[in-house]
Amino acid sequence: MDRISRILSGIEKDRSNIIKALQLVQDEEGYISDESISLIAKYFSVSPVDVEGVVSFYTQFKRNKPGKYQISVCDGTACHIKGSTLVKEWIREEIGISDNETDREGLFSLQTVACLGCCSLAPVISINGKVYGKLDRKSLIKILKKYKRGDIV
Amino acid sequence: MIKRIKVGTASCGVAAGAEEVFNYFKENVKDIEIVRVGCIGHCYAEPIVEVETENESVFYSRVKANDEYLKAILSLDNKFRHQFPESRKQKECIKVTRLSGRIIPTSIDEYMENEGYEALKKALRLKPEEIVEEVKRSGLRGRGGAGFPTGLKWSFLAAKDSPEKIMICNGDEGDPGAFMDRSLMESVPHQILEGMLIGAYATGATKLFIYVRAEYPLAIKHLKEAIKQIEERELNVLNGRKVPIIIKEGAGAFVCGEETAMIHSLEGGRGNPRYRPPFPTDRGYKGYPTAINNVETFANIPIVIREGSDSFARIGTENSKGTKLFALAGDLKYTGLIEIPMGITIGQIVYEVGGAEPGSVKAVQIGGPSGGCIPEEHFDAPVDYDSLNKLGAIMGSGGLIVIGKDRCMVETARYFLDFTARESCGKCTFCRIGTKRMLEVLERITHGLGTEEDIAFLEDLGEKVKKGSLCGLGQTAPNPVLSTLRYFRDEYVNHVVNKKCDALVCNALVDIYIDREKCIECGLCIRTCPVGAISEDYVIDSEVCTRCNSCIEVCPKKAISRIARENKSGQS
Questions:
Q1: Rounded-to-integer distance, Cα A22 and Cα A43, Å
Q2: What is the DSSP string of A63-82?
Q3: Which of A112, B152, B364, B570 is most buried, by CB atoms within 10 Å?
Q4: What are phi and psi for residue B528, nearest 5 degrees?
């Protein structure tokens, strides 16, 4: 709670900064909780439903706590025609999660994103911001296993 | 004598392993400067390393972080040297991307050594209205998609009398399959900022915003550093007043590329577009007059001013001047970022610049979810705003995906509708529900459950969604469907009448088949199959099989393949 208040105190109290506030809170917490919404609403003197409306509009904001490793599967045009649907299927087989789900251990969560802008390396995924390209089933599973074992932190 | 070594560490380079290469070189080479640069556009060859010597530049491609590569590079060995494809070199026209990947993105000094900020200096010696005139004369049109004349937009803003005037750089590159703006922001942030400062001087803008997608962290980082350098040198003091430059991070909404939606997002709200007029140049951000230009448009401005409008207008066609960047991806050899003069043909881009195999290409998709598919028989059409419109596509921001013969056009159309249906902001009924209904019909067709009436329904509803939507998203959302219906109708008919997908893409119309003649019964497929669909005697249970292709990938004898499903009833 205090942490969120501290983040907010560094932001100018103009409602044009609501998105920025949400981004900073999510950076800190990993998601936007109910408490965060009411604190942000109070800080900018708007109603909580206004903030909720902004949160639900933008795909960047998450309302559930994500896993330690956030996998983003790119479904841009190039990745799509190069098999991003298969990539998702392979991830489901390997760690048992589909879109917007987190595994039971809280290790991985999965989301589909519009385009990571690395089209020439399609298909690509990113895990906590690190991009992996030119994936096939073998290389993908190798990468996931590395994270599972904790070889990459 | 090696002067320095440059490693391309823009996003696609990093994804290919450039960061490891950079660190390895840095650790093992002490006496030569190793620097990070942006993207030279040849993404197919990443990671790319450039060695600068006294009199030449030598490029190495697909570099690995090991001693073998390092030794070859330090001795300027011919091994691993990159050969730039000759046909691409001849067709390209490098203007906007001249410094991209060649200089350190966040070094203002290096930018200035390469004529950087000379255009701004030149501009400041002119009257603001002279600059607007110059941009008008150059014929530069907006590179974000719609192609509105930049000079004209600037003249609207310049004519306004207001205590605050806003200029926004649109870096919300949301089109899946497009990465021109990302590459420019990562590689030459100063060039974009110089264009914005010239724009601010010409129009009297008092505040500058850059709206960047949050998915582009490296672009944001480089822009921030560049802005800091500008402020230190007070380059943003125009006519004696300081013009603040503010970065705003988007939060993942495609519709925010639309200008009124972007303004709402900048104001901190939901990114819903609104009715125009009033146009943003009359009433924009917080009610102040506002002009929005695309990243690539701003990156063109320093060239227009430095070289003059006549020189700029010599490249291109009657109504489309200058060069255009395209993000080339899909089924071709030389993927990457290309810069071509307006007016060369689609075929030249696909085959000569992109090196696609003749005979292997079915169509190109231009303009992303707002654009359309252009079939091979129209590849002689020139790339300019008007010709592409006539073919049912749009210039768009510059995503150009080459679609090979083995892709399904119905599934491609379904993909784009799935995207726009999700990204629709929900304000207009036709866009919100119409795209959803179109998507459902397309899903039915790709599942083998469509009827011939469905095709007519798609055409009818597509036209209505175009007419019944307020902003560009809805007005163009049916384009991928309508353009594929126009050029690839037989594929739709094949799906609904024969229940066949000739490209073997649509899973419900496909079976996986093991050729027992080739099979050596090694058991690899049985062990790999995640759902246990393959029996001991190598028969695939098609009810259980998810068609994930895992068995096809592991089979050492290539005995397993996708075949057309015999069952005519389809599957849901």
A1: 12
A2: SSPPPSEEEEEE-SHHHHHT
A3: B364
A4: -80, -35
ipTM summary value: 0.87
Alpha helices in B95-138 (DSSP H): 108-113, 118-125, 128-138
Domain spans, chain A: 2-57, 69-149
Closest to A107 in 3D by CA, of A62, A140, A152: A152
Q: Is the pLDDT of residue A65 over 70?
A: yes
Report all structural domains of chain B as residue ranges with CATH numbers, in order of start.
Answer: 2-84 (3.40.30.10), 108-311 (3.40.50.11540), 323-404 (3.10.20.600), 409-496 (1.20.1440.230), 510-564 (3.30.70.20)
Enclosing H/E stretch for B525: helix B524-528
B482-502: pLDDT as tens digits: 999 999 999 999 999 999 999
Mean residue pLDDT of chain B comes to 95
Q: B163 preceded by cis ω (within 30°)?
A: no
pLDDT beyond 90 at B555:
yes
A78–B401 CB contact, under 8 Å: yes
Instruction: Please indicate whether, in this complex, the C-beta atoms of A57 and B14 are within 8 angstroms of each other.
Output: no
* CATH code, A69-149: 3.40.30.10
Structure tokens, B443: 């899903």
Q: What backbone phi and psi angles, to 5 degrees, belong to B529?
A: -55, 120
Q: For residues B507 and B443, is the Cβ–Cβ distance under 8 A? A: no
What is the phi-psi region of residue B220: left when phi exceeds 0, alpha when psi lies from -120 to 50, beta otherwise? alpha
Query: Which is it for strands B336-341 and B241-242: parallel, antiparallel or unpaired?
Result: unpaired
Segment B123-141, tens digit of pLDDT:
999 999 999 999 999 999 9
Task: Tell me which amino acid residue B429 is.
Answer: T
CA-to-CA dists, residue A118 to B13, B296, B361, angstroms:
9, 18, 22
Measured CA to CA, the distance from residue B550 to residue B360 in angstroms comes to: 25
| Chain B residue numbers touching A80 (CB-CB < 8 A) | 176, 415
What one-character-per-residue DSSP string does B152-182 give?
HHHHHHHT---S--EEEEEE---STT--HHH
Which residues touch B18 (CB under 8 Å, ≥6 apart)?
B7, B8, B9, B46, B47, B48
Q: In whole angstroms, give the CA distance from residue B71 to residue B155.
A: 56
**Partners of residue B12 in chain A, C-beta under 8 Å:** 117-118, 120-121, 133
As given in the structure block, the two tokens for residue B323 are: 């060069």
Q: Which chain A positions have a beta carbon within 8 Å of B548's beta carbon?
A: 86, 89-90, 93
| Helix-strand-coil split of chain A, %, nearest 5 | 50, 15, 35
Q: Residue B361 forms beta bridges with which residues?
A: B404
Q: Are B176 and A115 in contact (CB under 8 A)?
A: yes
Pairing of the two strands B290-294 and B166-171:
parallel
Does B548 sit within 8 Å of A114, measured CB to CB?
no
Query: Using an 8 Å Cβ cutoff, are B211 and B263 in contact?
Result: no
Burial (CB count <10 Å: 0-12, 13-18, 19+), residue B523:
exposed
**Nearest-CA neighbor of B481 among B463, B498, B507?**
B463
